[in-house]
Amino acid sequence: MPPLRWGVVGAGRITHDFVTAVQIFPEEHTVVAVGSGIIARAENFAKEHNIPKAYDEYGSIAKDKDIDVVYIGNLNPQHYCTVKMMLENGKPVLCEKPLTLNEKLTTDLVNLARCKQVFLMEAVWSRCFPAYRKLEELIADGNIGEVLYLNVNFGFDLQNKERVKNKDLGGGAILDIGVYCLQFQQFVFRGLQPTKMVVNGSLTQDGVDGTTGALISYPGGKLASITCSAEVKMPNEAIIVGTKGTLRIPNFWCPTEIKAEDQTYKFDLPQSRVKFNHMNSAGLSYEAMEVKRCLEEGELESNKITLDETIQLARFMDTMRKAVGLQFPEDFD
After folding, report:
1. What is the pLDDT of residues 28-57, one digit of tens each?
2. CB neighbours of 294 closer than 8 A, spacing ≥ 6?
3. Which of 54, 100, 126, 281 is deepest in the core (most CB within 10 A)?
4. What is the DSSP code (8-state) at residue 76?
């Protein structure tokens, strides 16, 4: 099969990492165009990454016949309109998390993708890591018995990050990193519907959530405890507790190891000579590979992170934001 031809939207740090990751595998992927609202940024990005085309607006990406699939890495409030544009032009989409700012907009895009019969995937890259496949096996095989409890925490001091502290940019810890905690507990308790969610947290002086915790109850006495913070560095690990044992997953959002009570499972990352901005970003190639597999097999969504799960993630985030008093203008449309 020829390489999958990507167009990328946004010329920021995460898009740099995504492009760098997929370029590790030139026989599988090629990036043919980049779009940015500022042409100079697009041109500089294209030059840095040897991308043949640079556009100063996203519509050109949507209409470019040389593009097989689009990666969207622009700011949170821009996701909805950008994804909608791509889907309406028949372009398959991999969009950075969160897919949109709330459940309503997320559901709109999912319905559009299903109506148009066009592939859509939220870029919850965690789900595509080999460690998650191993986790699934360990849980399914009953190695730790019945899972009754999990704790997952994720926090960094992000108060100097404009995208996090600025409400107009869809800021706050919940949408930026809390989504990873929520997707993890969703993954472990996959197929179950929560019975109760209790949230506590507060807003920063900038009017976005700083540190927020939630207890999520599931049938059978199962409980998930999550904490996300944009104010302090946390242990940044997940702990899964079953009736027969415990699993610990350091850096659970991009893990390279799982610690069982009697063994540690390690996973190597692809290697690149180009420097990444974020931890373990070479793992972004895993989600790109999953997109390629889905498109080659004619699938309209990934079973790694289904569209129904994406809607549920948005609902979780809405519930947390509402509890701490963070609302965006889009919540009232």
Report:
1. 999 999 999 999 999 999 999 999 999 999
2. 119, 121, 300, 301, 302
3. 100
4. G
Looking at the DSSP assignment, which residues form a beta bridge with residue 214?
Answer: 199, 226
Q: Do residues 322 and 249 both lie within one domain? A: yes
* Span 294-313, pLDDT tens digits: 999 999 999 999 999 999 99
Can you give the pTM of this predicted structure? Answer: 0.97
Contact 151, 225 (CB under 8 A): yes
Is 122 within a domain? yes
Cα 58 versus chain centre, distance:
21
Q: Is residue 74 part of a domain?
A: yes
| Number of domains within the chain | 2
Helices (H), 93-204: 103-116, 130-140, 162-165, 173, 179-188
Cα 4 to Cα 97: distance, rounded to the nearest angstrom: 22
Strand, coil or helix: 122? strand
SS3 category, 245: coil
55 and 43: one domain? Answer: yes
- Neighbouring residues of 252: CB distance < 8 A, sequence distance ≥ 6: 126, 152, 154, 180, 184, 236, 237, 238
Of the residues 67, 98, 126, the one at which a domain ends: 126
Do residues 145 and 120 share a domain? no
